């Protein structure tokens, strides 16, 4: 028989406590009629043809590399045997499509660098071929 979770369990557990705080923040935003909810994900919709013209084979390769963790533009360029400026342009397009996130971080003793991160562990593409 499964045991029920009590309010005391939430108070004792850091994981359950954090979940409770997030849930309260979402409920508060709903009550206030906020335009966006905390801890929510943004989903972007494109016409399939437009999307496929933007997701070139080289960009798809960069997406696959970026899905394995945090990588700098220079690391992606080196791994893909491509020019860093071309990789940077392609990463910008992937970011516009909502497929990766780019963050500027401090590079020890050398200014800043851009780090590419996956936005999700899985990206699903659904296509409807019905005429509109």
Search tags:
single chain, alpha+beta, Arc Repressor Mutant, subunit A, 2 domains, 3-stranded antiparallel β-sheet, 6 helices, 48% helix
Overview of the molecule:
The protein is built from six helices and three strands; from the N terminus they run ααααβααββ. The chain is α+β, with helices and mostly antiparallel strands and 132 residues long. Strands 1-3-2 form a three-stranded antiparallel beta sheet. Strand 2 and strand 3 form a beta hairpin. Helix 4 crosses helix 6 and helix 5 crosses helix 6. The longest helix is centred in the N-terminal third of the chain and has 19 residues.
Short description:
With 132 residues, the chain is of the alpha+beta class. Helix content is 48%, strand content 12%.
Reconstruct the topology from this structure.
Layout: H1 7-12, H2 14-32, H3 48-54, H4 57-66, E1 71-72, H5 73-80, H6 84-96, E2 100-106, E3 112-118
Antiparallel strand pairs: 1-3, 2-3
Helix pairs in contact: 4-6, 5-6
